[in-house]
C-alpha cells in the first residue's frame, strides 16, 4: 500500500489509492468509488457539539516551530481518546445487530481502526496532524505584525485538527479582549472530524490560554496538571461561550465536499483563507481552487490587498499525482487565472512549501 510517511504522529498505517486527473472538473475515481456520493455542505452547531462531548477528554502537547527560532506548544486531543468516544457512543446508542443509522458515525467507523488511511469521498485524513499544518502556523507567526487577524473573517479549508486556526485563537485569547469581531470558520469533509477533533482542540486551546485564567482559578477540583485531562462540565461550556463573546470571536463549522460549499450560507467572502495538505489528489485540486478563489474577500478580485490566501503543501505526493507543480498549473489554467508565490520553503528531506495565491 502507498504510504505518505510524513504525518506528525506515528499511529497506524497509511494507505492511499493511486489516482490520475487533470485540471478540469471531471472526476477520475477508481471503479470502487464511482458509487460514492460526496457529502453535501452542512453546518455543525457548536452548541450541539459541546453538548455531545464526553465528561472528560485527554490531550497531548504539539510543538510548532516559530520563525524566531522558538517553539509554541499547543494542546491537541489524543487520537485514542477520540476513538474511545466514538466506540462508546455507538455501543451505547446502537443495537449490536443493527448498522449505524447515522451516516457520519457509520463513515467514521469505517476508518476507526486505521484513521490515517485516506479513502476518497469517505475519509480525508482529518484525525491526523500533518506536517504542513505546522509550517502554516509557523508562517502565520512570522507575519503576525503585518496581518492582524482581529476583526477579520478567516476560513480554514480541510481543517482536520486545525493547527493553523488554533494558533490564531491562541494569539487572540492571549491578548486583551478587543471590540473587533473576528469570524473564524472551520471546514472539513468529515463532520465526525469536526466533532471528535476540531472542536475539542478549540476548547483545549481556550482552556490553556489567558482567556480561561479566571475559570481555571474557579474550579473546585483543579485537574492534575500531569494527567493532561480536561473535565468537560456545564460550567466549562458556559465559560467558554462567554469568553467567545468577550473576545469577539465567532466560530462556525462546516462539513461536506468543496464542490458544495455554500458561500452565501457561510456569510460571504473571507479576508484570510488557509489550507494545508489538501493538494495530494489531482482530481480534487480543481474543486479546491474554485472554493478558495470564491472565498477570497476582494469585491474586485484585482484588489489583492483585501485578502490573503495561503496554501501549505508537500512539493510532491508520491503515487497519487498531486503536488505543488500540479497545483500551480491548475491555478494558472483557470479563466483569468491567478499567480502563486512561494513565501516559505523547506528544501531538505521531504520538500515543503507555503504558497500565497493571488487571483487576477
- Helix tally? 11
CATH topology: Rossmann fold
Which sheet architecture does the biggest sheet show? 8 strands, mixed
C-alpha Rg (nearest Å): 20 Å
Summarize the helix and strand pattern as letters.
EHEEHHEEHEHEHHEHEHEHEHEE
User: Mind telling me the CATH class?
Assistant: Alpha Beta
What portion of residues belong to β-strands? Answer: 15-25%
Widest sheet: strand ordering: 1-9-7-6-10-11-13-12
The dominant shape is globular
Mean pLDDT level: 82
| Helix and strand composition category | alpha/beta
Keywords for this structure?
disordered N terminus, 360 residues, 13 strands, alpha/beta, Rossmann fold, eight-stranded mixed β-sheet
What's a quick, concise take on this entry?
Helices cover 31% and strands 21% of the residues. The chain is built from eleven helices and 13 strands.
Describe the model.
The protein is α/β, with parallel strands linked by helices. The chain has one domain (41-359): Vaccinia Virus protein VP39 (Rossmann fold, 3-Layer(aba) Sandwich), CATH 3.40.50. Helix content is 31%, strand content 21%. It contains eleven helices and 13 strands. The strands form three sheets. The protein has an eight-stranded mixed sheet with strand order 1-9-7-6-10-11-13-12, with helices on both faces. Helix 4 packs parallel to helix 5 (163-173) and helix 5 packs parallel to helix 6 (191-207). The longest helix is centred in the middle third of the chain and has 17 residues, at 191-207. The radius of gyration is 20 Å and the shape is globular. Residues 1-6, 10-22, 25-34 and 94-101 have low confidence and may be disordered.
Amino acid at each position: 500500500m502507498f504510504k505518505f510517511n510524513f504525518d506528525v504522529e506515528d499511529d497506524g498505517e497509511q494507505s492511499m489509492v493511486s489516482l490520475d486527473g487533470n485540471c478540469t472538473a471531471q472526476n477520475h475515481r477508481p471503479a470502487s468509488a464511482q458509487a460514492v456520493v460526496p457529502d453535501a455542505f452542512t453546518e455543525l452547531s457548536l452548541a450541539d457539539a459541546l453538548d455531545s462531548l464526553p465528561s472528560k477528554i485527554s490531550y497531548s502537547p504539539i510543538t510548532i516551530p516559530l520563525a524566531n527560532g522558538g517553539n509554541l506548544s499547543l494542546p491537541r486531543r489524543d487520537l485514542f481518546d477520540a476513538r474511545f468516544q466514538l466506540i462508546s457512543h455507538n455501543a451505547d446508542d446502537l443495537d449490536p445487530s443493527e448498522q449505524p443509522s447515522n451516516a457520519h458515525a457509520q463513515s467514521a467507523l469505517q476508518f476507526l481502526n486505521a484513521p490515517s488511511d485516506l479513502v476518497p469521498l469517505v475519509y480525508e485524513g482529518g484525525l491526523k496532524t500533518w506536517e504542513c499544518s505546522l509550517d502554516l502556523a509557523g508562517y502565520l507567526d512570522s507575519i503576525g505584525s503585518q496581518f492582524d487577524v482581529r476583526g477579520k473573517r478567516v476560513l480554514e479549508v480541510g481543517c482536520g485538527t486545525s493547527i493553523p486556526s488554533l494558533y490564531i485563537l491562541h494569539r487572540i485569547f492571549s491578548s486583551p479582549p478587543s471590540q473587533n469581531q473576528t469570524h473564524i470558520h472551520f471546514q472539513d469533509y468529515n463532520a465526525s472530524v469536526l466533532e471528535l477533533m476540531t472542536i475539542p482542540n478549540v476548547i483545549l486551546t481556550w482552556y490553556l490560554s489567558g482567556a480561561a485564567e479566571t475559570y481555571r482559578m474557579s474550579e473546585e477540583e483543579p485537574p492534575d496538571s500531569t494527567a493532561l485531562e480536561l473535565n468537560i462540565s456545564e460550567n466549562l461550556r458556559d465559560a467558554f461561550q462567554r469568553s467567545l463573546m468577550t473576545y469577539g470571536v465567532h466560530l462556525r463549522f462546516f462539513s461536506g465536499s468543496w464542490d458544495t460549499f455554500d458561500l452565501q450560507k457561510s456569510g460571504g467572502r473571507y479576508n484570510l483563507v488557509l489550507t494545508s495538505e489538501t493538494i495530494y489528489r489531482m482530481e480534487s485540486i480543481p474543486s479546491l481552487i474554485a472554493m478558495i478563489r470564491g472565498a477570497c474577500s476582494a469585491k474586485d478580485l484585482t484588489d489583492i490587498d483585501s485578502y490573503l490566501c495561503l496554501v501549505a503543501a508537500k512539493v510532491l505526493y508520491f503515487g497519487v499525482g498531486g503536488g505543488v507543480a500540479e497545483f500551480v498549473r491548475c491555478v494558472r489554467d483557470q479563466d483569468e487565472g491567478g499567480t502563486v508565490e512561494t513565501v516559505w520553503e523547506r528544501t531538505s528531506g521531504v520538500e515543503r512549501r507555503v504558497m500565497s495565491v493571488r487571483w487576477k
